[in-house]
């Protein structure tokens, strides 16, 4: 037991110890992963906000910082200190969103540190400026979940409201990327997945189809076709959160109506443009489309993903399409699904062929209908930590001793969330 952890988190550890009384290795792995984010990545700032670095990279990703602390939301309802820490993160996220909604990663201070000297509109706050829809989704999701799990609304301040309007403006602008977008991104001397084609504009998409454009995937790899369907799905969920907050907390019916309208527009476009026929699996969702009829059938380990539809809360018109898509994703028809002697699951273009991700395994478990499958996946995760007692990014399905990233805070948190889910402890939505 980590005695330095808050009592509220120790209570959750005790529940895990009770559930896995016959599996001390699972308990030890949970404790290490559960304490990792607080021990190594969280810093309270002098302005009352909270900065959360991604782990072995000294920058804060809007996406990762939410996923890293999400399991702590369960404890926030009874622990004011944890609740304040999370509210501080929400306020910092919206400061960054308003500073530059096209950036994905930020520095702890305005120091000019960056991953690379990219050709885009950088500032000294920015670590990287790869535009990803999910970078705007996650802060809204987190603010909403903080409210639902604690009842607090003080983080819905003027900066938050400004951020909602900023996000709406970007998503509407990027529905007409070719004509209206101010964004471009180029990185010199790199692999093609790290930069955008056509002088930084990215692959051509058809404007005005209802979908909103994304330059990069949540893996930070460039989109092949600019309409990234899992991220558009996540956007519809988040727009629903915006509508609820606007209606119930802000009492702003104009904002509620605007978010509801955009949600319907994107949702209808997904259902009409992103479903394609597959010979083996029937109607499935494409991963990316361009609006002209081209599409990509695949899924990636990073979230949002097609596998994560139910986890994120996407409301599909036809559940059979969701089931078909899951079957496709968890098969060799998905070019990033791999099976080996030690594990099987979803990997990513971001890592080597034959490497699968602990994040994707966690999502598979969190979206599974049976506790048996959840436990089987937990055991796979436990048995593929390469003796490090932490989760990695990707690992070789035939030899887990070959992996990327010694430890990965996002993956650690996802493992913890699956353990808690198995113990019937879940974040309220």
TrEMBL record:
Highest taxon, organism lineage: Bacteria
Transmembrane stretches in the record are none
**By its UniProt entry, which Gene3D superfamilies does this protein fall under?**
1.50.10.10
Quick one: a GO biological-process term for this protein?
A: carbohydrate metabolic process
User: What's a single GO MF annotation on this record?
Assistant: hydrolase activity
One of the Pfam families matching this protein, by short name: Glyco_hydro_125
Q: Which UniProt keywords apply?
A: Hydrolase
- In the UniProt record, does the keyword Protein biosynthesis occur? no
- The protein's name: Glycoside hydrolase family 125 protein
Q: What is the organism field in this record?
A: Gallintestinimicrobium propionicum
């Amino acid at each position: 037991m980590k005695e330095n952890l808050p009592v509220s988190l120790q209570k959750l550890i005790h529940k895990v110890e009770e559930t896995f009384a016959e599996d001390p290795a699972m308990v030890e792995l949970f404790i290490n992963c559960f304490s990792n984010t607080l021990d190594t990545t969280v810093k309270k700032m002098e302005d009352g906000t909270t900065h959360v670095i991604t782990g072995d990279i000294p920058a804060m990703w809007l996406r990762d910082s939410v996923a890293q602390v999400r399991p702590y939301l369960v404890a926030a309802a009874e622990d004011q200190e944890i609740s304040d820490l999370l509210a501080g993160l929400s306020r910092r996220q919206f400061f960054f969103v308003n500073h530059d909604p096209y950036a994905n990663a930020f520095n702890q201070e305005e120091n000019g540190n960056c991953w690379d000297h990219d050709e885009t509109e950088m500032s000294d706050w920015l670590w990287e400026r790869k535009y990803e829809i999910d970078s705007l989704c996650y802060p809204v999701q987190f603010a909403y979940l903080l409210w639902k799990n604690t009842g607090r609304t003080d983080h819905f301040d003027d900066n938050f409201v400004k951020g909602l309007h900023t996000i709406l403006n970007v998503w509407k602008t990027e529905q007409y990327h070719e004509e209206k977008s101010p964004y471009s991104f180029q990185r010199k001397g790199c692999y093609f997945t790290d930069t955008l084609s056509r002088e930084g504009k990215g692959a051509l998409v058809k404007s005005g189809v209802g979908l909103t454009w994304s330059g990069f995937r949540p893996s930070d790899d460039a989109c092949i076709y600019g309409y990234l369907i899992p991220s558009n799905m996540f956007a519809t969920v988040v727009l629903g959160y915006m509508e609820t907050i606007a209606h119930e907390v802000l009492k702003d019916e104009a904002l509620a109506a605007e978010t509801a309208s955009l949600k319907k527009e994107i949702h209808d476009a997904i259902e009409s443009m992103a479903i394609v026929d597959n010979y083996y699996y029937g109607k499935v969702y494409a991963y990316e489309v361009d609006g002209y009829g081209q599409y990509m059938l695949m899924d990636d380990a990073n979230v949002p993903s097609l596998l994560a539809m139910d986890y994120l809360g996407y409301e599909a018109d036809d559940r059979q399409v969701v089931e078909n898509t899951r079957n496709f994703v968890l098969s060799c028809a998905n070019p990033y699904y791999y099976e080996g002697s030690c594990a099987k699951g979803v990997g990513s273009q971001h890592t080597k062929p034959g490497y699968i991700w602990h994040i994707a395994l966690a999502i598979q478990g969190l979206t599974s209908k049976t506790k048996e499958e959840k436990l089987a996946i937990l055991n796979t995760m436990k048995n593929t930590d390469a003796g490090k007692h932490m989760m990695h990014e990707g690992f070789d399905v035939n030899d887990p001793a070959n992996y990327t990233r010694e430890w990965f805070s996002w993956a650690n948190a996802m493992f913890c969330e699956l353990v808690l889910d198995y113990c019937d402890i879940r974040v309220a939505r």
